[in-house]
Write a structure and sequence with these properties.
6 helices; cell membrane; extended; Na/Ala_symport; mainly alpha; Alanine or glycine:cation symporter, AGCS family protein
């Protein structure tokens, strides 16, 4: 929870402000190059800014890999049992290694597709349980209405 807060609120806000305040968002740069330019300009130091971005990017990438590994491992245990963990780890490590050699656009396409595929079981569950959700919602509001009527009288 603390890591999510730190990454999302502190790091993203700091990066966004650096991009906006230095005008780096108007440059022809993109991604890490734009962020490096923003920090180098904002800190008025051509060596400290890029070094901070590099170190931050390294830690962010490493913790993201650890987080996705843990999440995927827990999903494999839930879906297939503990016997599926070792094959999952082997495939995961292989994909990390191959990611170092693939073109960045291809990596983003694969990541988008896989993240989209993760939504499919959830969407199936939502559609299958829609009647339960409607019934529970009706019961909730009926009970709430009865409670408010009892307080008014």
């Amino acid at each position: 929870m603390t890591g999510t807060f730190f990454d999302t609120i502190i790091i993203c806000t700091m990066t966004g402000l650096a991009l906006i305040l230095t005008g780096a968002w108007q440059s022809d740069l993109s991604g890490a190059a734009m962020t490096t330019y923003a920090f180098a300009t904002g800190l008025n130091a051509q060596t400290i800014g890029p070094m901070l971005v590099s170190i931050g990017l390294m830690f962010f990438a490493f913790t993201t890999i650890l987080g996705w590994n843990y999440y995927g491992e827990r999903c494999m245990v839930f879906l297939f049992g503990t016997k599926a963990v070792l094959p999952y780890k082997i495939v995961f490590i292989g994909l990390i290694a191959s990611g170092a050699f693939l073109h960045l656009d291809l990596i983003w396409i694969i990541a988008d597709i896989v993240n989209g595929l993760m939504a499919i079981p959830n969407l199936i569950g939502l559609v299958a349980l829609r009647h339960v959700v409607v019934e529970e919602t009706k019961q909730y509001f009926a009970a709430r209405y009865q409670y408010s009527e009892a307080q008014v009288q």
